[in-house]
Input
Amino acid sequence: MIVRALVLAFLLALPGAHAQDNSAIKKSAKTSLVGTWNLIRYADTPKGGKDVHVFGKSPIGQFIFTADGYMSVHIMHNPPNPKDQVVDPDPEACIPSWYCGYFGTYSVDPAGHFWIGHVLGGNIPAYIGTDQKRTFTIVGDRLIISETYLSESVPVTAERVLVRNQRNSN
Output
């Protein structure tokens, strides 16, 4: 009888312990993302092709993630070209094309493999009111965002590399 009671107590305790472990993992993944990140690379590479640098080879940008769940993303062509006011018919294009920015709240998956930005506003009209999922890894002081998409049936690897701003690393 005592053994049965101990086994039952052990089994009942497992879901609670598992939930605590998940919340610790979730908190750890989100905590590792918190801070200001400076963009150092923005490239899209079609399979079998060369890198395409939409914002130039040395883009300027910052991704900011706060501990209380807010985010802000800014990416700008370097050097900027305010005369480039072309309106791209692509619904996911930035207006103007040399600067992209959006803001909102975010959540991180428990395993820390992706975040979802819940976009409240920005200059990418198609993003407003949507959830934008980004797959990421953090290696040392680098945040690497990578994903693959299709462009005219050709796989394209998108890579964004950011470095943690040392002013807020503590």
Notes: Residues 1-26 have pLDDT under 50 and may be disordered.
